[in-house]
Amino acid sequence: MLYYAIVFLIIALIAGFFGFFGIAGLAASIAKILFVVFLILFIVSLIFGRRRPL
């Protein structure tokens, strides 16, 4: 998930550099959404992931 967020961020930076601001904005918003989803899943896995055996 974090990999795809970084890929979309790089696409947004390259598209913005070449002047494709519509594509850059879309790719940047997708990257933001994926990063937020990654953070939520990461925090949930930290809380519930490691349970001690009984």
Automatic annotation (TrEMBL):
Regions annotated as coiled coil: none
UniProt keyword annotations, A-Z: Cell membrane, Membrane, Transmembrane, Transmembrane helix
Family membership: Belongs to the UPF0391 family.
Keyword Hydrolase: no
Source superkingdom: Bacteria
Source species of the chain: Rhodanobacter geophilus
InterPro entries found in the cross-reference section: DUF1328 (IPR009760)
Name of this protein: UPF0391 membrane protein ABQJ56_09585
Spans traversing the lipid bilayer: 5-24, 30-49
HAMAP family associated with the record: UPF0391
Claim: Lyase is one of the keywords in the record: no
